[in-house]
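Q: I have 273 residues here and want to know how they pack in 3D. Can you give me a structure?
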Amino acid sequence: MRFVIFVIPLLVSTALTSIPAQAPVISPDSALGDTNTQSRPEFGRNTRAMVLATVGIAGAMVLFDARLSVEVQRVGGDDMSTPSTVGSFVGGPVPLALGATLYATGRLSGDGFVTQTGREVLRAVVVSGAITALVKGAVGRARPFASPGDPDVFTPWHGFTNASVASFPSGHTSAAFATATVLSRELNAAQPGTRWLVSSLLFGSLSLVGFSRVYQHQHWPSDVVAGAALGTITGYEVVAHARGDRSPIDRHLFSHMSIAPSSGGLAVQWSRR
């Protein structure tokens, strides 16, 4: 099980990436809003099944979290200190910064595809982050540094006020995989011939984020798996929504969310209507 922390998040996301991408049709006004396209349901119809599968996989991994954490330390040794710092950084401020940069670049250059991609990255990161925060607070799982060797310490609802018991799921991993999913889907649609190369590079490299969080004693392996799946599902839902698909989940999550330029940068708004 030495490399399981790499393999599982990669398999989850790579399997999802095998769903055929459909090229978006970008209208002249796409820089000002979502593309107005209609396509067959791409992923929304399978979201409930994926959520249940994720719960099952993460739940099973809880039984091996302590052992897997030890294996991660053995695999990393002393040589992973610097790479793990980089991995944690990539899963921290980078996703939001990348989305904002793409959106601003697209607006300034008048490139609807870049604007749309940046908007979708921002939406995916914001929504996955909100869901992650809610689950963290409700579950209240102790981080590895707070309960060494014991992954079964839970104090429900305390995760909202105590970061040391906000381990499940991994927010860094969910943000990274949400970003990778949006980029993969959009780049695959624009350049179908690079589909597997782009997906493999994105999800393979971002597995370092999950590894880093476990290596630094910030998360248990099951936290990382749940975060990777949550980010991937959110990314797919965002892209499907932008292409005209309205699944029962994204109909309520994304239909009322807007991102637009403001005097101070970007404004994220949520309407109850």
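Q: Anything worth noting?
A: DSSP finds ten helices and two strands in the chain. The radius of gyration is 18 Å.
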